[in-house]
Write a structure and sequence with these properties.
The structure is a single chain. The protein is mainly α. Helices cover 69% and strands 0% of the residues. The chain contains eleven helices and no strands.
Length: 174
């Protein structure tokens, strides 16, 4: 009810003190609740209190019927910085579902997401290729240079433009 949601909202924005494991276990128990707001706040809280043990449960929420629950899970997956989240988040960018949120989370994940994001440059539709360039602009390393150089000649002018900009940023980080 309302009290549970109020507690979950506070936990999602609190600075972790004491036993994170106990709080995370409590939050994880609410991930399958019938109420979408309870699931949403529990997922968001796991981004603060959770850890590697909660990644699989958060990944399962990427299939939730409610966008707010999916977005909270995506945000928490980014915050937890676990490499297991990279491919499922990149898949969202590829399909276009929750693409903006997934893109932000991939940027937060950083270098561990690079491999999964590079695969988006091979997508048939231009939108995922465009977004891959935007993400690689932030997280790309020397591993991305060759793929970005190839994408700089993409048939889609926006992909080409973004690939050139991303390559420039990646090269400046050498």
């Amino acid at each position: 009810g309302a009290i549970v949601d109020a507690v979950l909202v506070r936990l999602a924005t609190a600075k972790p003190e004491g036993s994170k494991k106990e709080v995370a276990t409590l939050l994880a128990g609410f991930l399958k609740d019938a109420d979408q707001f309870t699931r949403q706040h529990a997922a968001k809280g796991l981004g603060v209190w959770g850890g590697a043990a909660h990644v699989e449960a958060l990944l399962a929420l990427l299939e939730d019927g409610e966008f707010a629950v999916r977005w909270a899970a995506i945000e928490s997956l980014g915050a937890l910085k676990d490499a297991r989240a990279a491919a499922p988040l990149a898949k969202l960018v590829g399909t276009g579902r929750d693409s903006y949120q997934a893109s932000q989370a991939l940027k937060i994940l950083g270098e561990v997401a690079e491999e999964a994001v590079l695969k988006l440059l091979d997508e048939a539709k231009p939108e995922p290729r465009r977004e891959a360039c935007q993400i690689l602009k932030v997280i790309g390393t020397q591993k991305s240079v060759a793929a970005l150089e190839k994408a700089a000649n993409d048939a889609d002018p926006l992909v080409a433009l973004r690939a050139k900009a991303a390559g420039k940023d990646v090269n400046s980080r050498k």
